[in-house]
Design brief:
Elements lengths: L2 H8 L7 H10 L4 H11 L4 E7 L2 E7 L18 H8 L8 E4 L13 E4 L2 E4 L2 E8 L8
Antiparallel strand pairs: 1-2, 1-6, 3-4, 4-6, 5-6
Length: 141
């Protein structure tokens, strides 16, 4: 998928969420993971994509607008939706859920910031967690 084509289509989507990821993945005949990764690389909005196995974080990518100190925890917090999906067999998130940012990050006063999460399972031992920042405190300088 070329960046030019994707940018043209992205204008029809107001925000980064799994609805947009699923629709665009179908349009470009690619996986949800690949599409979500590409969108985080391209979008101006503050978002992060993290991949977790039961053993911990495998990788993550942040949009350019996210500050460098916002690294996801090495292991999933039991309060996260991703934990429930990976360890307890819950279904993929149907909508974006708001959680305290300290569920995902070890940054001072993260408990006073909300972050959106809409995780999905890739296979038995791998989930992808799209995270969307709603606070300017998470933005890069």
């Amino acid at each position: 998928m070329t960046e030019v084509m994707l940018k043209l289509i992205l204008r029809d989507y107001r925000k980064f969420n799994m609805h947009a990821v699923r629709q665009l993945a179908r349009t470009f005949n690619t996986s949800k993971t690949a599409m979500a990764y590409r969108l985080v690389e391209m979008v101006k909005g503050p978002c992060i994509l993290a991949a977790y196995r039961k053993s911990g974080c495998v990788w993550h990518i942040s949009s350019k607008s996210i500050g460098h100190q916002w690294w996801p925890h090495r292991v999933l917090d039991p309060q996260s939706n991703a934990y429930s999906i990976l360890f307890n067999g819950f279904r993929d998130d149907a909508t974006m859920s708001d959680l305290d940012a300290d569920t995902w990050f070890d940054v001072p006063r993260a408990d006073r910031i909300e972050i959106g999460e809409q995780s999905f399972r890739v296979h038995d031992d791998l989930i992808i967690a799209p995270l969307v920042a709603s606070s300017e405190r998470m933005l890069a300088d």
